[in-house]
Amino acid sequence: MTTDNLKIGIIGLGYVGLPLAVEFGKKYPTIGFDINELRVKELEEGSDSTLECSPEELRDSKLLSFTSQLSNIRNCNFYIITVPTPITDDNSPDLTPLKKASEAIASVISKDDIVVFESTVYPGATEEICIPIIEKISRLIFNVDFFVGYSPERINPGDKVNRLTTIKKITSGSTPEIANYVDSVYGEIIDAGTHKASSIKVAEAAKVIENTQRDLNIAIINEFAKIFNRLDIDTEEVLKAAGTKWNFLPFKPGLVGGHCISVDPYYLTHKAQEVGYRPEVILAGRRINDGMGEYVATQLVKKLASRKIHIDEAKVLIMGFTFKGDCPDVRNTKIIDIVRELKDYNMTVDVFDAWASREEVREEYGISLIEELHEGKYDAIVLAVDHSETKSMGVEALRRLGKEEHILYDVKHVLGLNESDMRL
After folding, report:
1. Domain UDP-glucose/GDP-mannose dehydrogenase C-terminal spans what residues (predicted)?
2. Known catalytic residues?
């Protein structure tokens, strides 16, 4: 198999799909498809609201075009599906986007086409869920008329150092020949090289444990922070001291949100329970991390009470709403847990975040972000996200936002050790 006549179709143009489309579009005819017409329009105009790709990068991808019409990708022969895989309210996998994408692909693929999935799933999902859908609708036979690969995404939103081309890519295929071909195709754009897994299931499992391991590492640090707060010890000081040992892992406490670390573990635990194993450590870590928003709010309430600041109708400013610093992504942000908990205490909560989309925050969370910061207004200021702009303000400017008597809570260790009133 050669790449001479390769025509690539990317399904989903978010944080994962767009960088792929841009890189492949430098080498092969590539069409980026998304059902969101506004998203396609902004990309056609050379702008990316996720900030993953610059206008220059979009412009330099000479062989790339965009469409919201499924029929326009019918002539492709190598499809890559990058749709999100969220969870439901009860923390079960929500495979609806993946199923719909499989149905869409099934309606356009032809004989000998290859479909590669990048969405994070539990081991076995590609073969158990996606392939039967494609077979049923297309009436093509798997591994005879069409073939499948799996190459999990490793995009880190907002990271301008570790990007698509500089992160080693796991690849796999439904036959040895297809595995080699998929690996060679990705090898054309991944400078860091590839790792060809022995099977699709191995590749799926590798992806889902990457973020599960990170989730657990953060969970133990969060538990340390809860203990050290009771002992009146600064957690960061402890971590710095422990970090002098060569094999101590440099994790920090914090709110674990976003569309990966706080979601992926539930995909693995779902499959584990399906096969009769009840995970204990993974779910314990999830409980700790899912409860950190409430914990932060409760600690603030206690601190306000200790300073004799009236809690009822107190005015609180939350600095930051995205799930991580210097990133516009608000999906599954845990800052909302802080906001809701403080409002339950009848506090007035203002949220400021210049990185977040005001429209998206209002639509998804029912919150109107404030546009300007006003001095002398707040009983408490919570540094919830470590945006560069917040860091550059400095402690004096941040303090001026508060009333004469106020609490400055540095959740993300934006300031120095003794510059805030409390830290996570």
Report:
1. 317-417
2. 260
